Amino acid sequence: MFSRDRWREIFETISKNKLRTFLSGFTVALGIFIFIILFGLGNGLKNTFQEFFLDDASNAIFLYPGKTSMPYKGFKANRRIEFENEDLEDIKQNFPMFTEYVTPRISRSALTRYKNESNSYTTRGVAPGHQFIEKTLLMKGRYINERDLENKTKVAVIGRMVAKDLFKTEEPIGKYIDIGSTAFKVVGVFQDDGGDREERYIYLPYTTRQLLEKGNDKVDQLIVTFPKEMGHAGAIAFETSLKRYFKDKKSIDPRDPNGIYFQNLTDDLKQSQQFAVVLQLIVSFVGLGTLIAGIIGISNIMVFVVKERTKELGIRKALGATPRSVIQMILQESVFITTISGYLGLFLGIVVLKNIGLKLEDYFIKDPFIDFSTALAATVVLIIFGAVAGYIPAKRASSIKPIVALRDE
Amino acid sequence: MIQIKKLHKSYKMGASSLHVLKGINLTIEEGELVAIMGSSGSGKSTLLNILGMLDNADEGEYLLDKVPIKDLNETKAAKYRNKFLGFVFQSFNLINYKSALENIMLPLYYQGVPRKERQLLAMDYLEKVGLKDWATHLPNELSGGQKQRVAIARAMASRPKVLLADEPTGALDTKTSHEVMDLIQKINEEGKTILVVTHEPDIANMCKRIVQLKDGLIIEDKKIKQVLASAYV
Questions:
Q1: Least CA distance to B49: which residue of chain A?
Q2: Among A41, A107, A152, A254, which is most exposed with the fewest C-beta within 10 angstroms?
Q3: Nearest CA distance, B168 vs chain A (angstrom)
Q4: Does A325 contact chain B (CB < 8 Å)?
Q5: pLDDT score of A409
Q6: Chain B 192-231, CB below 8 Å of chain A: which residues?
Q7: B105 lies in a domain?
Q8: 8 A C-beta contact, residue A187 and residue A154
Q9: DSSP strand E in chain B: where?
């Protein structure tokens, strides 16, 4: 296999049969190239999907208060349910194993002003855990922390679009903005993959919000996150026990569908994951199809190559080439060409993918990529099939009697 | 050198079979120059192919240099061909992408001769056939006579015991034919056993013995007085 003489013979053959070399090399290079591009674009589509649907944490349960629709334990129907600060603590204490973060969310719309710029934004009174629920990314400064809650400090974390609207190019950190006629110090600027709308929120400590509203302890919504490891079934079970606990605590009929509404994001997650699986299947199918097309291409070329060389092989056999040496020659040649051109296609594909990557975001394709190992595996598969496809006709050609191969056309 | 006894060969043509060789007995000594003659369909090419191990006989004995040639698999046949036989074909059968020199080097490659040595040996043979200056030319840059001379050099390069030539002058004009025959005669003078299949009487007369085939049987086998091709060149 590694005899220098044989390699020299093969190099001679390759360099003197340029069309043949080009054809088989081109087929493999093109196959790999298209495979990488399509697979990469498919992955880009998947990325876009994930960005759209998997922006927020998926391991969260939202609790919204409502009105009861059934009388229970001496209470009339149509009673308004409210959450209080105490409920936050109760969740933490009663379900310590199931909770990661518990945060309220008090949404208020407020006119916000900085110098001459003003606009109406939604403010959200939250606890530090909220950052992980919205997957808020801090660009500058910090998020709301426990000290803010304790001291009821007047600090605000503003979205990127808020900063852009109010501050233009000015540095917002440390400046004071006027939110509904109260001055808040900007301590952080965030961005959010959820888009511009999500970047127009202003986050405040919920205790400060309560202080401004005459020191009450009412909370609009509760958001609880649970460890991801619990899985879908665990999340459903947790939701059920939370429901039971709160209906009991707030004296709501266990059969009452109203009173408190629960939204478990794990359901959404399951659906979008199924969609992602379908998308992955499509991507894999496209990749596999391309690969099969490539295999068929190289097989055709190999059959043609061997056919074209039948007479030459007959001459070689008449001069003393053994069938084994004939097969080896054809295989070594084909594997050599497919390997070189396969890696060329691989390299080109990755380079092109990298370069077109940024220009396709308008077409719902984000960061198209391919794992190097997948690309490499595809290349190896094509090389192996090229060899197999070459072996079959080579084997046949090698067993033809030289006299048949030499017969004048 | 060659002994064959009761050689039979038939080809299946669909349902019927064509009996081509119907029991050939032939003995050829070392250093002979034998012409095998016969009209087309007489079985002369089939005989040569069997002698050259390019085809198998159905029945009969074949001894080549005292080695029985029987039940050969392809690998063994290839080795024997490489060791014992040199072929010259009517249509030259040079590999068209290899230069004259590389064509001659090829049987040596299959003998496992190192490259440097191959090159020197091939050059020697090319010189012998008078084409030293054409070493780097491709076959399609050579004339018919030159191609056949390269083919003869290639057949000689592996130093075979027997040279088998199938209509070596069939594709050449008279003058070139005589040149090629002159070369064959010279090689024979050096002691090489040569078989020439031909249907041209004047080519056959340049050999030392003529074997006439008709309908798969030898009808005449005579030693003749050789006509020297150099007289015409």
A1: A403
A2: A254
A3: 14
A4: yes
A5: 47
A6: none
A7: yes
A8: no
A9: 2-13, 16-28, 33-37, 59-64, 67-68, 85-88, 162-166, 193-198, 209-214, 217-223
**Number of domains into which chain B is organized:** 1
What confidence tens digit (pLDDT) does each residue in B162-212 have?
A: 999 988 888 889 888 998 999 999 999 988 999 999 888 999 999 999 999
Among the partner-chain residues B55, B82, B91, the one whose CB lies closest to the CB of A401 is B55
According to DSSP H, which parts of A54-74 are helical? Answer: none
Q: Amino acid identity, residue B25?
A: N
Q: Is residue B173 in some structural domain?
A: yes
Encode pLDDT of A190-215 as tens digits: 888 777 788 889 999 988 888 888 87
Task: Name the CA dihedral angle for B83, B87, B92, B96, rounded to a multiple of 10 degrees.
Answer: -10
Count of positions (residues) in chain A: 409
Tell me, what DSSP letter sits at residue A55?
S
pLDDT for A53 equals 65
- Residue B66 in any domain: the answer is no
* Coil, helix or strand at residue A379: helix
Task: Tell me the CA distances in angstroms from B112 to A1, A3, B35, B127, one per residue in order.
Answer: 14, 11, 32, 22
Q: Are B37 and B233 contacting, i.e. CB atoms less than 8 angstroms apart?
A: no
Q: Tell me, yes or no, if B54 comes closer than 8 A to chain A by beta carbon.
A: yes
Rg (CA), chain B: 17
What's the pLDDT tens digit per position in B101-110?
999 999 999 8
Where in the sequence is the domain holding B133, given as residue range(s)? 30-56+76-231
- Rounded Cα distance between A335 and A288, Å, is 21
Q: Which residues of A touch B90 (CB under 8 A)?
A: 408
For residue B142, what is the domain's CATH number? Answer: 3.40.50.300
Structure tokens at A273: 């994951």
Q: In what order do the strands lie in the sheet with B193-198?
A: B85-88, B162-166, B193-198, B33-37, B209-214, B217-223
Q: In A152-203, which ranges are continuous DSSP H helix?
A: 160-167
Q: A40 and A370 in contact (C-beta within 8 Å)? A: yes
Query: Which ipTM was obtained for this model?
Result: 0.88
- Chain A residues in contact with B98 by the CB 8 A cut-off are 12, 16
Q: Count how many pairs of residues, chain A against chain B, have C-beta atoms within 8 Å.
A: 70
Rg, chain A, Cα only: 34
Would you say residue B21 lies in a domain? no
